[in-house]
Amino acid sequence: MPARLEVADIFRDHGEVYRQAHHGHLGRVERRVMSAVELCRTAALGGHVEGCRECGTVRVAYNSCRNRHCPRCQGQVARDWIAARESELLPVPYFHVVFTLPAELEAITYQNKQAVYAILFRTTAETLRRVAANPRHLGAEIGLIAILHTWGQTLTFHPHLHCIVPGGGPSPDGSRWIASRPGFFLPVKVLSRLFRRLFVEALQAAFETETLTFFGDISQLADPLAFARLCKTVRRRDWVVYAKQPFGGPEQVLAYLGRYTHRVAISNSRLVSMEDGKVTFQWKDYRQGGKRKLMTLTADEFIRRFLLHTLPDGFHRIRHYGFLANGQRGKQIAQCRQLLQADAPQTAFRAEASSEDQKPEHPCPCCGAAMVTLAVWYHGQAPPLRPSWDDTS
Asked: Which of helix, strand or coil describes residue 274?
C-alpha cells in the first residue's frame, strides 16, 4: 500500500524551486516553516531506536519539528490542551459564534498580521462582552475562548474568529447566574454592527499612529484620503457574524475544540495526489451544502497558499476572555460552579487508572509490550547503526 501523500512531500519535492522563484518575497517565518515541515520526522532532527524484549521488534522513531504550522505535529498538543479544558467545562449550553472580516480588509490584514489580528481578537471579545452585559440582551459577565483561523477550504486567505461561549454568566454583582434563553445566545445583527464599528475605529487608530504598512497592490492606502474612503466603504457593508446552534453537551464542546483549536491550513488527509508538478486536494463547497470536490493547483500555487497562513512569531491564536481569562480562570470558574450549584466534572483525563490497567507509554506495535530505548541521536548527528540488545544491559 503506497504511503499517503503529505504536505511535507510537496515541500521536499518543490520547496527549493519555490524558494528560488520567490527569493525576494519569502520572509523569515515562511522559510522556517518550510524547513520545519520538510525535516519533520526525518533523521535530520534526531531520534531514537527502540525495541521490544518480548517479540524482538526494533523500530526507528524520528523527532517531530513541533512547528505549529506542521500538519503532523498538532495531535498531541491538541490532546494536552483539551485535557486541560475538560476540567473547566460548566453544566450549561455552549454556543459557537463566528466573526469574519470583509474581503476589502484581507490585503491590509495580510500585510499587517500582528497588528490586525490583535485588533480582531480585541474587538471581537469586546463586542461579545458589551452586548452580553446589556440587560436588554443578557445582563451578565460572560467568558469565551477565541480561536483564529485564516483559511478557507481552498486555502485562500480568509481571516475569522471562532468563539466558544458558555450560555450565560454571573450577574454584575456576582450574586446569581444569569442563563441565556434556550437555543438563543445574543442577536447577531447587534453583534455585527458593534463589531464593525469597534473594528473600524481601532483600524483607523492604528493608521493614525502609523502602526500599519502598505505596499504592492495596496500601497495607495498609505494616503489618508484613500484609507478614509476604504473605511467608509467597509462601514456600509454587512459584516458576517454567525451564531450556530448550541452544542448538545460537554462532550460535543470538547470534540469541536479538538477539531478546531490546533488545526492548520490543510490536513494531510485532504491531499489526493501530486503529479506533473500539480497537487490535487479535497475541499467542501459550503455553497452547495458541503459537497466534496477536488481542486488541482500547481505545486508553486499550493505552497504559496499554504504559506499565506503562517503566524507571526510568538502570536497566540487561542485566547481566553471574561471569566475564562487566564489570570483568574480557576477561581472564577469555581465561583460560577457555586452559582450553578454544580460540582467539578469527573473528567476522563484526570481519572487514575489502576496499576493493572495502565498501558506502557511506548507499546510495541506487534505485541503491546513496553518498548525500550536502544540508542539516541540528536539534531546534526548521524543516526547510529542498529544497536544490539547488549547495549541496554
From this structure: strand
